[in-house]
Design brief:
Blueprint lengths: L1 E5 L4 E6 L16 E7 L4 H9 L3 E7 L8 H13 L7 E6 L1 H13 L5 E6 L2 H7 L4 E6 L2 E8 L4 E4 L9 H18 L1 H8 L7 H18 L14 H9 L5 H9 L5 H13 L10 H8 L5 E2 L2 E9 L2 E8 H21 L2
Parallel strand pairs: 2-9, 3-4, 3-5, 5-6, 6-9
Antiparallel strand pairs: 1-2, 7-8, 10-11, 11-12
Helix pairs in contact: 4-5, 4-7, 5-6, 5-7, 5-9, 8-9, 8-11, 11-12
Length: 343
């Protein structure tokens, strides 16, 4: 299955198909130097399959996790590219999850003012979300995605067979973003999820998420308007992620509960629990508020938040920081009361 995304400067295709890892030459120009960026969690078999399909492969592994999205790691890979004689005619292929995609995309965007970039996402989170849209970023000063650029890939290859190597927790992490996408953009997908058919229909689920995101980003490539709805759950979610050991999708799962109507929560909370995702946090409201103050969505004493009154109908709201602090405290008290009632 193919999906085309039409950008302002170029169009690119997403190919979704089982076994497509073995036939990358159909979707990517690998007859040149290829920096294959991957992390320590990716099976050697995947890396070797990619190497065999490249004319001049240059594999580079980084440690797994958000710490690799750093200026230090970025600089070390730039040095490899210089030492290996990479030119503007060469390319970078990101093989892995969202961290590798963000880091690889930023490298490709900035090396010699931009080289071709391909992604082969192997995590569910990357396959349905972070691998498309052109957002690339590094973390800085303990803050997530503070340094970045928009740089769209030349093509994206999604092979659902790679999910077989995914740890259970990473699969659940991806399901957090799948559920987010369904809540804001796709009532039909939401019904599939609520009927617990997702794992039997993964290709359909992945393509539904890709189509929804593609539709939004083609309307708003630089995240100035409607694309902001994709941040549902992220206002508080990023604060939770920065203040805990939870993964992105887990944090977003909790974040969604802050700006969802009671009607939608009736089905959302059981759905999150069914996929092993958390629905509340014990992080103090003051800690979360301090983290939110550093978020890119804060501007002029207000914070942008995405609310959902009905599935498929997201709203962009601007909330004063004072009200945001109150909401965090109210949710903290609500969680404390619920815990006390179960003792």
């Amino acid at each position: 299955m193919d999906l085309e995304i039409k950008g302002r400067d170029q169009a690119y295709r997403i190919h979704l198909g089982r076994g497509s890892l073995l036939s990358l030459g159909h979707y990517m120009d690998l007859n040149r130097r290829v920096l294959i960026l991957t992390d320590e969690g990716i099976p050697d078999s995947y890396v070797n399959q990619v190497i065999r399909q490249c004319q001049t492969p240059c594999p580079v592994r980084v440690p797994s996790g958000e710490r690799s999205k750093s200026l230090k790691t970025y600089e070390s890979i730039l040095q490899v590219m210089v030492d290996k004689g990479f030119t503007r005619r060469d390319c970078l292929l990101a093989l892995g999850g969202g961290v590798v995609g963000d880091l690889g995309g930023f490298l490709a965007a900035t090396y010699m003012r931009g080289i071709d970039f391909y992604t082969l996402p192997t995590s569910l989170l990357a396959q349905i979300d972070s691998s498309i849209g052109g957002k690339t970023a590094l973390n800085f000063g303990g803050l997530k995605n503070m340094v970045g650029a928009f740089h769209h890939p030349r093509s994206v290859v999604v092979d659902p067979d790679t999910l077989a190597s995914l740890p259970d927790r990473q699969f659940r992490n991806g399901m957090g973003e799948v559920i987010k996408t369904a809540v804001i953009l796709d009532p039909n997908l939401y019904r599939i999820l609520c009927s617990h058919q997702a794992e039997d229909r993964m290709e359909e689920v992945i393509m539904a998420c890709l189509r929804s995101k593609a539709r939004i980003i083609q309307e708003d490539f630089t995240d100035r308007g409607i694309r902001q709805v994709l941040n549902f759950g992220h206002t508080v979610g990023h604060a939770i992620e920065a203040s805990s050991n939870l993964l992105h999708g887990e944090s977003v799962a909790i974040g969604m509960t802050y700006f969802t109507s009671p009607k939608v929560l009736t089905s959302l909370l059981p759905l999150l629990k069914a996929y092993g995702l958390p629905t509340k946090t014990d992080i103090p409201a003051d800690t979360l508020f301090r983290a939110i103050l550093h978020d890119k969505k804060v501007d002029g004493g207000e914070v942008r938040a995405i609310a959902v009154e009905e599935v498929g109908q997201p709203l962009i709201r601007r909330i004063s920081l004072e009200r945001m602090e109150d909401l965090l405290r109210e949710k903290e008290e609500e969680n404390r009361t619920k815990e006390a009632s179960h003792v």
